[in-house]
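Handoff note, outgoing to incoming analyst
You'll be picking up this chain. Sequence as last confirmed:
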Amino acid sequence: MIYFYDTCALLNNYTKIFSEGKVFYISAITLRELEGIKTSRTKDDETKYRARKVIQNLKLHRDQCKVVLFEEKFYKKFKKYNFLDDSNDSKIILCALSIAEKNEITFHTDDSCCRELAAAAGLKVAYSTEEDTEEYTGFKKVFMVEDELASFYSKELNENINTYNLLENQYLIIVDEEDNVIDKWKWSENTYKKISFSKFSSKMFGDVKPKDAYQLLAMDSLLNNQITMIRGNAGSGKSYLSFAYLFSCLEKGTISKIIIFCNTVATAGSAKLGFYPGSRDEKLLDSQIGNLLASKIGDKLAVEKMIAEGDIVLLPMSDIRGYDTSGLNAGIYISEAQNLDIELMRLALQRIGEDSICILDGDSETQVDMTIYAGDNNGMRRVSKIFRGQDIYGEVTLQKIHRSKIAELAQQM
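Most recent structure output, in case you need it:
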């Protein structure tokens, strides 16, 4: 099956389209539209950003995309479809029809009018977003009947058959009928890799072991990827695992310092306290990042000591432009990452050099504190769409709350 994408389908799904590595077709009209969108004064920043990214990917993946030139003779060749006019949608459909003469194709669009026109012209049509309705969690949980389980261990594992269409560094959790975890694997470098028990050890945190299978996956990602995103509800262990890993690395000397990028946004619905006196670090320690550090490390004095000795650096987003971690061999921790829009998140990640690692933690579903960071403009969501499937990236959404019974029940409020 050959896929043909119209402009809006390409804009909305380019990350998935290019990460799959499959050859697909577009019309030259789409290229023209992308260039127009990129510099348009009437399009919003999000749409223009997507257009730029599509153009970049088209340049990087020239062999993956086949461009069909529109020809006026198409009107004569497909004259029975006399409802196709000189609009761009019609011209794109005519290009698709020219390919469909010799190949079985599926025409992908996210535009309802274009869908109806294409279907009326006899094309097999699909909304591109229909294939990607599930939220990406970084893993797939699968129940296998006895025959499927036997096949997986005897065939799929031995022949590295990616039956479940896992992306690079995506995990596979095998469960039984009662949802008990049987086994855990990762698809990496075109093979299955078994996920075994691990722990983080440091003087600060002691031995930190996973409390469930999802925490184990997050720990594996931290150990093996340059950048990891950990999502989950309050109390699921996001920041605890992140700090346990960073302090383990700091004590072993694999990183020289922990740099915390923070955007100190007041909690949604709360009363703002106004001006905080003191230096930049003192102000930050009086905010949520100070509370977070004190709760994980022990107390405020211990945090202040580590800052004074250069083991911890607090960097507010307001001062981040121009910063470069190259040569610092640092562990970058982006706290409360749900409170970053796409532009701030891009700016933050552009600071990270080749010798540094990065952890993002947050909850982009329930803990966004300002509307400007919500929805399609959320930086965490954008990172997930752009980075998933890359060999340097891992992502895990934690599923269970371990802080307390109270915290678990509060999530239902």
